[in-house]
Amino acid sequence: MRMHNPPHPGEIIKRLCLEPLGVSVTEAAQALGVSRKTLSSILNARASISPEMAVRLSIAFGTSAESWLNHQTQYDLWHAEQRRKLLRVSKLAG
Amino acid sequence: MRMHNPPHPGEIIKRLCLEPLGVSVTEAAQALGVSRKTLSSILNARASISPEMAVRLSIAFGTSAESWLNHQTQYDLWHAEQRRKLLRVSKLAG
DNA sequence: TAATTATGTAACGCAATAGGTTACAGTCAG
DNA sequence: CTGACTGTAACCTATTGCGTTACATAATTA
Questions:
Q1: pLDDT tens-digit profile of A48-93?
Q2: In Å, what is the CA distance from B56 to each residue of B13, B19, B37, B61, B84?
Q3: Measured at the alpha carbon of residue B17, what is the angle toward residues B16 and B20, in degrees to the nearest 5?
Q4: How far is the CA of A83 from the C1' of D22 (A)?
Q5: Does the distance separating the beta carbons of B31 and A90 come in below 8 Å?
Q6: Which domains does chain B carry?
Q7: Cβ–Cβ contacts within 10 Å for residue B36, how many?
Q8: pTM to 2 decimals?
Q9: CB of residue A17 closer than 7 A to nucleic acid strand C?
Q10: In 3-state terms, what secondary structure has residue B15?
């Protein structure tokens, strides 16, 4: 299990994409082709990176869509692992 | 962009987990703590691996939850990439 | 043969979520 | 002050993960 709470992908977008380029949330939302609300929700950790959004980010920022989805996976997984003990699952192998 | 259509994670569960162990869908669903329908939907590519399900699989089969989510990511991403051209997105960098 | 078991799936319901629009309040630069 | 940018609330829709119940079919077993 991962030790540290991974950052929400929205923080990464802010730090690595918007701030270095000096792009506003409004501008970025327009470029990405989504509503300002949609991007804002992601930036403020209220929504996730969907596969489609990952592709949008890859086009707008020249990054790999896979890396964005992986960030989201790490984030989701960490939170799911926190509830591991609550799941009543019996071992079949391993 | 990935060249070949990645298999749905359900196929991987079937081939790598259920069949080698000779476990039935009903038995596996009970062990995983989900309904038979839920597991069947995944096995027949009608539903995805949720983060919680990935943790369940990791407990039942002694695998890593991350690998299951990654399989799902690859599958989702490939389908999202197929629609890349339909997205109206403008470049901001890269 | 008759009964049981396993499987897929349809029809429901529920809760969550990704997306949209509109509208409002607050901040900040000119 | 004015205008731009931002967060967010309210409301809508479509989708999805999961549950239960029920049914038809196939396969196994008594």
A1: 999 999 999 999 999 999 999 999 999 999 999 999 999 999 999 9
A2: 12, 18, 16, 8, 32
A3: 80
A4: 33
A5: yes
A6: 9-81 (1.10.260.40)
A7: 14
A8: 0.95
A9: no
A10: helix
